[in-house]
Amino acid sequence: MRRVLATAGHVDHGKSTLVRALTGRDPDRLSEERDRGLTIELGYAWTRLPGGVEIAFVDVPGHQRFVGTMLSGLGPAPAVVFVVAADQGWQAQSSEHLAAVQALGITDGLLVITRCDLADDDRIATVQADAGRRLAAAGLDVPAVEVSATKGAGLDDLRTALADLAARLPEPDPAGAVRLWCDRAFSVSGAGTVVTGTLGAGTVRTGDRLLLLDRGTTREVTVRGLHSQDAARESVGPVSRTAVNLRRVDDVSRSAVLLTPHAWEVAPTVDVRLTEVGGSHATGSHDLKEMRTPEQATLHVGSVDAPVHVRPLGDDFARLSAGVDLPWRVGDRAILRDPGSRRLWAVRILDVDPLPLTRRGGASRRAEALSAGDLAATRLRSRSAERLDTFERLGLLVPSTAVRQGDWRIDPAAMEAWRGRLVEAVRAHHSADRLSAGMPVAEAARALALPDHLPADLGPDLVRGLVAGSDLTIADGRVLDPRASGLGPAEAGVAALEERLREAPFIAPERGDLDDLGLGPAELAAAARLGRLLRLPDDVVLLPSGPARAMRLLSGLEQPFTLSAARQALGTTRRVAVPLLEHLDSRGWTRRVDGSLREVVR
């Protein structure tokens, strides 16, 4: 079992000393840190506890000047070791670190009272009670251990408490998607670029192809090698500190992130719920207005700190817009920080890459929609349609009411609205042209007036789905309403032609006769589509019953028969007999025996 824990607490309360005493490793890597006795960069050390549990520590700086670095180390950790010195008690940075822990939703860990050799029992009890009360009020009701790291007192109790903590933490998913926030990036001679981070879920293997999202740009990279706890590995699973050697990659920032391809929604803008933590201010985004929080603040997520524009939506909702893409899932937690006032807000992601607010009152309507609670339905309703794989990337279940359309899921209200537009457009098309074979599918798709954010290629497939639930039909690539179809002014001419053919079934009218009846190509096509006439090549027009009547006559001939014999039996001309026989051949009712003979297929 492996677990990664972050330290937290006021500067000079002994966090690094505690980690050093537990692990035998100095988390302060920089000579400046050792000279000043002050943690500046994130430090890492690990140890094996009794029972075989491996614990790695992310040691964060406690000084106010390095709050951003502290947040990048705290963010990926599932639990915290909160340190308070017995001789100094609770301090200003203790409160700021606790606010960050609370904002990130961390609810488990340990309270460690350090430097107990510098305080008497009453002082230790007072500090522990005060710190425990503050942590519990922030949702961190955790066990407390008293130690003196320099004397070694209490370390065995602390190791036992750490093993208990590791055992009760949720088991991470080794098959989950990888999102490795990189908190260090450096070059190794002969090996290339190495990035380090805390792997909270998923498994990374040598040879894996991952996406590197760095300063808003994405590229595919290959894992050349892996190290964890100073040992080369073929694979690293959660929860682990890991160093990833990337093949042929240069110039990676310390705020990059490695991702499983196609597993995360990448966008610069998110809609969130904000809750202020720490201090004496009331919670909720109404404070954003009352306290005049700057429109610009800093968003801390994983190891990234990005400037964002904050747009209040109403109640405790806001829209955060960063200048770069970031990888998200609905439900992610982050921290919003005003560097000037040092106020913090807990951020919970409710929607990713939301649509622009274009109409008056759009912000308040958006807040009302987000407050409904069903975030999957809210997203689908706002966008009308969404791809299935997007729900999977966002970690949302597809609403049970969604309408399936291939790879898309459609909001039922949008589906009905589009069906109404389609029916109206098709009926208008028929009204304008009574002889039309229907509206082409592509034209019908344009009539739906789909929102701009939906791709154009969704339209034709959507039309087919809409037709399935209506009185419309599709034939030969056209959408038509059978009830609206008719012959209009051509009805009289078609009726006269039908009467004529009933009397002489195989005496097809000449082109001039058709013209006299007012039957041009459009009128004949409409009559054929309605099943009133049969059109054969060379302007030969018969009744639809003509082929069956011809077969009865041809069956009475001596088999096989010639074209001339067929013509005489039908009482017609060569102009009619040739296309009629070819039509019978195509239906498999007759067949050629040789170049001049045919026979009826029995």
Strand content: 25-35%
What is the straight-line distance between the termini?
A: 79 Å
The count of DSSP E runs of length 2 or more, i.e. the number of strands, is 32
Helix fraction by DSSP (H/I, runs of at least 4): 25-40%
- What would you call the quaternary organization? single chain
Structural class: alpha+beta
Number of discrete domains: 5
Poorly predicted spans? 28-40, 62-66, 280-291
Strand line-up across the major sheet: 2-3-1-4-5-6
Mean pLDDT: 87
- The CATH homologous superfamily of the largest domain is termed P-loop containing nucleotide triphosphate hydrolases
Under CATH at level 1, the class of the largest domain stands as Alpha Beta
CATH topology of the largest domain: Rossmann fold
What is the CATH architecture assignment of the largest domain?
A: 3-Layer(aba) Sandwich
What Rg is obtained from the alpha carbons, in whole angstroms? 38 Å
Description:
- One of its GO terms (cellular component) is cytosol.
- With 602 residues, the chain is α+β, with helices and mostly antiparallel strands.
- The protein folds into five domains: 2-168, 3-Layer(aba) Sandwich (Rossmann fold), CATH 3.40.50; 179-259, Translation factors (Elongation Factor Tu (Ef-tu), domain 3), CATH 2.40.30; 265-371, Translation factors (Elongation Factor Tu (Ef-tu), domain 3, Beta Barrel); 380-485, no CATH class; 501-600, Winged helix-like DNA-binding domain superfamily/Winged helix DNA-binding domain (Arc Repressor Mutant, subunit A, Orthogonal Bundle), CATH 1.10.10.
- The chain contains 19 helices and 32 strands.
- Helix 18 crosses helix 19 (574-586).
- The termini are far apart.
- Mean pLDDT is 87; it is low at 28-40, 62-66 and 280-291.
